[in-house]
Amino acid sequence: MVEYMDTQLRSALLANAGVSLASGLLMLAVPDTVSGWLGLDIAGWLRAFGLLLVGHVALITALLPRLGVRQTAKLNFLAIAPYPFLLLGVLATGLIERSLGQVLALADALVIGAIAVMHAMGLRNPATAGHTQAA
Known about the structure:
Layout: H1 2-29, H2 31-38, H3 43-80, H4 82-93, H5 99-124
């Protein structure tokens, strides 16, 4: 059971790293295009956020072998859990007026929310509570 939960947590970490890397590289490579999709003039902010996401992936990659799956997942969960709620708040305020931007923001919130739920399910399992084996 512990190995299954480690696998689930590892999958959640890898999913988050993959989504973060893809999103971050996209924002770094074509921030003006992403800004256009959102209908907002925020290319500079998107570049900064893209860099933050790529840094997030580097941090996950660096921490995983040092702290192990469970500890890295705990820290990652703390980092990503608020994000879907913040993004839904941005949508609720009407800041993103373009339909395409709203769909993209909602999809992003749902994907990161699902990854956060994967983290929470893996971390809540009492069978893995004392398990701290390194990756």
